Amino acid sequence: MARTYTLVYGLAVMGLFDVASRGLASALLAGVACFGVAGCAERYVMIQTGIFPSPMLFEDALSWTREAADTVQSMHDFEQARDSAYGSIGMLEGLHKLVPDDPDGLLLLEKAWSGISFAFMDDEREDALDHKDEQLAAYEEARARAGFKRARFFGDELVGLHTTGFKEAQRNHDTLSAWLKDNYTDKDQAEELLWLAFSIVGRIAFDMDNPETVSTLWIGIDLAEQSARLDENLDYGSAHIMIGAADAGLHDYTAAKQHFDRATELSGGRALTNQVTMAVRYYCPKSDKTNYFKALNEVLDAGDVLPDQRLSNTLAKRRARRYLSNKYWQEDCAFSG
Fold it and tell me: Quick one: which of 111, 180, 186, 227 could link to 190 by a disulfide (CB 3.0–4.6 Å)?
């Protein structure tokens, strides 16, 4: 499965304020989003002094928030990031209600719901399984499934802002591929496709007993492949990780290894989720015990190798430690010896 990727947590502080004024709410939101982002000094001065050249708009807040969102990946504290994520999602939902057709807001919600589902709800599910609490695990699984479903809703809405025919194009691989090539031709569109793909593929992992959900896998992979064509470097090769995991699930291990290797090449081996994904999705089903343990131990031994993806790597280490220490996660690997 693809890594946590870029999560949206920079707005958590907003939950501490009861703001009635539209202008003040936007100013506070923009100020929180501005921290740590180059070029924000002028905006920060405006917020501190209360002097603005024109009325603040929610569209401005969403634009600045999107600009600043990636800075949260530099956080190292998993629990703080989790609390921030849950604290910020309500504010994003509220802003979306006020400006429902804002592309920045839709993308932020698509990313936030996918990221929360993968990084935190799934972690809570795995923790419950570690403690043999199947009832709690089922609850967290349902939460993650619903979170990915909501992410896809916002992703579909975003597609509908600037093109038509997406639903009709999903008849088969050929019609969707042709539609994507006609409508997604710019590198800047790769991010939108990547997160829509993740919302589809991510949900399947929590809804394997639902044939309708599983049958959409090819749609997610087609979207990820087009995203990679437009910008395979996006999020350190995340599209390749997603495609590789899907190929491995279909037992096409040759293709899967090619995508995993390409992701490793693009990140210089510093995006550690790729190694965790290889261990779980590639080495485990191949019963390759040596490389399974080697990949996960390399993740734990890695230092702060990618500061701008520190949070994703922290999650990778958390999962690597879990998969090494509890044989429950190795039961499907059929390791011998």
Answer: 227
